[in-house]
Design a protein that fits this description.
about 25% strand; about 240 residues; seven-stranded mixed sheet; 7 strands; alpha/beta; single chain
């Protein structure tokens, strides 16, 4: 229902996100995420990797720099155009595919390593997406998901207090985020506490080995002065049974 609208919105954000990727590649986040990708990967010097919701290509570049064979997928053609330009600038080889990550155009057991960053929250059918990702992942392969509870404030009063208490805003480079904010109200994961939902869903798909790390945000409720701590961002690493 929203797939094309979501893609059109991210088309408008492609230029700004590409600027962010260049900043990340030259900043501390580059080293941090490169270490995360390396520590979470399955054994093997040359892995067949799939970067889902690749955006302007940050994860793809980091993986390709390690000598892996990378395929980058996004439904936003604007994001893919920026990704291709960034791959050329970074002097890495990455295949790009425009496609819906909830219905992948790949054979079963095709990839050693599947990664995504800030993607799953804006899927209309996230459980079906995870099933697809497990389908194309090789036995013994690993899935790495980096995401957050970005819109839980619509449904959880505690997260609403956090949002009101947080002064930092995301730089959209002049693009009005209203369209995606409105769509997010109807997306299923805006109502779920994560990564608990992700763990439950992956276990139901037969995953046996999971590693989860979370980043908490602490804040003070202005009226009562009470301290709270909630999960903001998180990382889930899952291994498909061999």
């Amino acid at each position: 229902m929203y797939l094309n609208q979501i893609a059109q919105y991210w088309d408008t954000r492609a230029e700004g996100y590409s600027i962010t990727v260049h900043k990340q590649l030259s900043g501390n986040e580059c080293e941090q995420f490169a270490a995360l990708l390396k520590s979470s990967a399955p054994p093997g010097k040359t892995l067949k990797c799939l970067d889902l919701g690749c955006g302007p290509g940050f994860f793809s570049i980091l993986l390709a720099r390690e000598g892996h064979q990378v395929t980058a997928v996004d439904y936003s053609e604007g994001m893919l155009e920026k990704a291709r330009a960034n791959f050329r600038k970074a002097a890495v080889t990455v295949d790009t595919v425009r496609g819906d990550v909830q219905a992948l155009p790949f054979d079963d057991n095709s990839f050693d390593y599947i990664v995504s960053r800030n993607l799953v929250w804006n899927l209309e059918h996230p459980a079906e997406a995870y099933a697809e990702w497990m389908r194309v992942l090789k036995p013994g392969g690993r899935l790495l998901v980096v995401d957050g509870n970005h819109y839980l404030h619509y449904y959880d009063p505690l997260y609403q207090v956090l949002k009101e208490a947080t002064t930092k805003t995301h730089d959209c480079y002049g693009v009005d985020p209203t369209p995606i904010n409105n769509i997010a109200r109807d997306l299923p994961l805006s109502k779920e506490h994560r990564p608990a939902w992700d763990v439950k869903t992956l276990l139901a798909l037969g995953i046996k080995h999971l590693q989860v790390s979370v980043n908490h945000k602490s804040f003070t409720e202005p009226q009562t002065g009470k301290e709270y701590r909630v999960i903001a961002e998180f990382v889930v690493c899952a291994e498909k049974p061999a």
